[in-house]
Amino acid sequence: MSDNPIPTRFIRRTSSSVQKIPILHEALTKEAQHALSTSSSSVSSTLSSTTSLANSAGTPNLQHNICGTSTNYNHSGLSIPTTTSRNLGYKENNEYEKIVKDAENDCTLINTLSDTQGLRAVKSHMDLAKTAHSVRALAKRLNRATIRLSLNSVLIITKARDNSLVYLTKEMTEWLLTTYPSLNVYVDGKLENSHRLDAAGLIKDIPNYNDRLKFWTKSMIKKGNVQFDFVVTLGGDGTVLHASTLFQNAVPPIIPFALGSLGFLTSFEYENFREILHNAITQGVKTDLRMRFTCRVHKANGDVVCEQQVLNELTVDRGPSPYVTMLELYDDDNLLTVAQADGLIIATPTGSTAYSLSAGGSLVHPEVSCMCITPICPHTLSFRPIMVPDSIQLKVKVPLRSRSTAWAAFDGRERVHIDVGDYVSVCASRYPFPTVKNSKDQYFESVSRVLNWNSRKEQKSFKHLLSDKNKKMCDLDDNIKEDTGMDSENETAWDIDYSDTENEIS
C-alpha cells in the first residue's frame, strides 16, 4: 500500500500549474516589481531563485529583464535574502517584509509542488486544502504580473498572400529601427527581395539598418538560434496560430494587431501601433497565458511518429473514408467511451470559439484550465460535448475492429494518417502561449463583437406611438400611485383561482 496520501491527479494538476510560471518571463507580484523598480537588487535575487525552482520542475532556461534588472533563470537553489529594508532605502520595515514573505511563501510552494516527496508531507485534509488554495492564489498573482520586455530582438510575422500588409510591415520596421537604435528587427525571409518592403532601399538610406534589419526563417525559429524578446503579428487569428506553430517550445509575448477578418485573438488596432509598442517596451505588458496541447501520434507499438504543440484544437476525423470512424477515447489507460462519428475535436479554451463551437461545443474562457471534447456529427443523440480537467492525459485510438483509418490535424494543419491500432495522446503543454492583454474584459468584448453573444433588442416602451395628448396623460398616470383597494401585505389576493367553483358564491 502506498504511503502517499495525495491523489495522483492532484499531484499532476498542481504540477501543471507550476509549469505555467516560467513562460511569464518574469516575476511574481506587483509588489515585488515595485521593489525592483526602486533598485531592490536583493528582491531580484529572491525572484530569480523562485523562478529557478520552477526551472527545476522541468522548465527551460530563460533570460529576461524584470523591471529593468537583468535576471538569469538557471537551475540554482533557493536563496532568500537577509538584507534589511534600511539597505534598500525603505521607510517602513513592513513593506519590505511583506514582499519578502510573499516571495518566500511562493518559493516554498513551488518547491513543494515540484517535489513528489514534498507533497507526501501533506498529511491532513486541512493541509491539502491550504496547498490547493495557495496554488490558486499564486496563479492569480501570476496572471496579474507585468512582463518587462528586453530591447534586443523583435520578430514581425506578416499575414501571407496579402501584399498590402507588406507596406505596413515596412512602416513598422522603419519606425522600430529609427526609434530604438539598439533593437534588432526580424522580418519574414520571404520578403527579403520584395520590392514592396524595399530592404535594400532602407539600408541604403540609413546604413545603420544593415546590422539590425534581419530576416527570419522557420528553421531558424524552431532551432532556437535567436532569443526573441517579443513577437508582433500583422494579420488575423490565422497569423497568430501560425506564430504558435513556429514556436514549439517557449513562446515570447505576442502582440497581435487586428488586420484580419474576425479577430478573437487580435485585440490591438494597427493605427495606434506606435503608442502601443512604445508603452509595451517602456511600461511592460500583461499577458493571457493561453493553454496549448502537446499532441503525439503513436504507432501501435508505442513509437512516436510526430509531436506538435497546438493552440486551438486537435481534430481526429475520417478523412476521405466513406465509413463512420470508430474512435476509442481513454483517460490515461481507462476507456471513457467509444465514439462512432465523423470524428472528435479536443479543443483548448482558446479553440472553444473555433471548430469546436461550430460543432456544438461550449464557449470557454481562456483562463479556465480544461480540455473540451466535442464530437463531429456523432451517430447517437446522447453524445454531448464535455469538458474535462487539464490534469488528465487523453488518448484517441483507432481500434483494431474499426472499418477504416483516421486522420489527425493540428490547428487545421499538418494532417497525419492514423492507421488501425495507432493512437494520439493529448496533454496540457508545458509551453503556454502568452498573448498581450488589451483590457480586462477583452474576452467578453471579443465574443460579443465577433459572435454577437447574447445580443438582442431590449424591450421598449410604446409611448412613441401615442399622440401628444395621450403622452401627457400617460406621464401623469405614471406619477400617480393607484389605490388598488388592497393591503400591500396581502399580495395573495392577486392569485387567480382556476377551480371549477370559482364563480360560485360561498
Shape: globular
Q: What share of residues are in beta strands?
A: 15-25%
In the sheet with the most strands, the strands line up as: 10-9-20-17-12-13
Give the CA-CA distance, first to last residue: 76 Å
Helix content: 25-40%
Mean pLDDT rating: 77
CATH T-level fold name of the largest domain:
Tumour Suppressor Smad4
CATH class wording of the largest domain: Mainly Beta
Number of strands: 21
The CATH superfamily of the largest domain appears as: Probable inorganic polyphosphate/atp-NAD kinase, domain 2
**Cα-atom radius of gyration:** 29 Å
What's the main sheet like? 6 strands, antiparallel
Tally of separate helices? 16
* Strand-pairing-aware structural class: alpha+beta
CATH architecture of the largest domain: Sandwich
What does this structure look like?
With 506 residues, the protein is an alpha+beta fold. The protein has 3 domains: 8-144, no CATH class; 153-289, Rossmann fold, CATH 3.40.50; 293-431, Sandwich (Tumour Suppressor Smad4), CATH 2.60.200.30. Helices cover 32% and strands 23% of the residues. A hairpin with a 2-residue loop joins β1 (62-66) and β2. The longest helix is centred in the first third of the chain and has 21 residues, at 93-113. It is globular, with a radius of gyration of 29 Å. The termini are far apart. The model is unreliable at 1-92 (pLDDT under 50).
